[in-house]
Write a structure and sequence with these properties.
140 residues; alpha+beta; 8-stranded mixed beta sheet; two-stranded antiparallel ribbon; globular
């Protein structure tokens, strides 16, 4: 499975769209791009494998692996990037501003169910992150 995350960068946060075969699955919020600095920046653009991971704190969730210079990058619920994220990616159903959105838990569960189903069937799942060139990502 090949997922695509198209990003728009703003000084206060990063917004995006996750698509599968061109179909919008959800929006995303992340920290702003600050040169890949740990805990304060979104991760670099690139192609990353997704894995499932189980911890006591977060339960079953998605892990973004082999991020240059970073570790423990998760896909997990958050509605405000600057107060709830440390470099991770948060799915949301609605964007409300740079790095902020709504209904993250529901968006995360939908995305996680899709990805975990593919992984459980033996598929490898990749997320390719790039800057949008079409201006598709909108901020309300």
């Amino acid at each position: 499975m090949e997922l695509e995350l198209f990003r728009m960068y703003y000084p206060d946060g990063t917004n995006g769209e996750i698509r599968l075969a061109g179909i919008l699955l959800c929006y995303t919020i992340e920290l702003p791009w600050l040169q890949n600095r740990r805990n304060v920046s979104c991760i670099p653009e690139g192609r990353y494998k997704l894995r499932k991971r189980l911890t006591a704190k977060r339960g079953l969730h998605l892990l973004v692996v082999e991020v240059p210079g970073r570790s423990c990058i998760l896909i997990h619920p958050a509605n405000h990037a600057k107060t709830e994220l440390q470099g991770c990616i948060a799915p949301v159903l609605e964007l409300t501003g740079p790095g902020s959105g709504r209904q993250s838990r529901l968006a995360n569960e939908r995305l996680k169910d899709l990805v975990l189903d593919a992984i459980d069937k033996g598929e490898e799942v990749y997320l390719t992150i790039s800057k949008t060139s079409t201006g598709r990502v909108t901020v309300l």
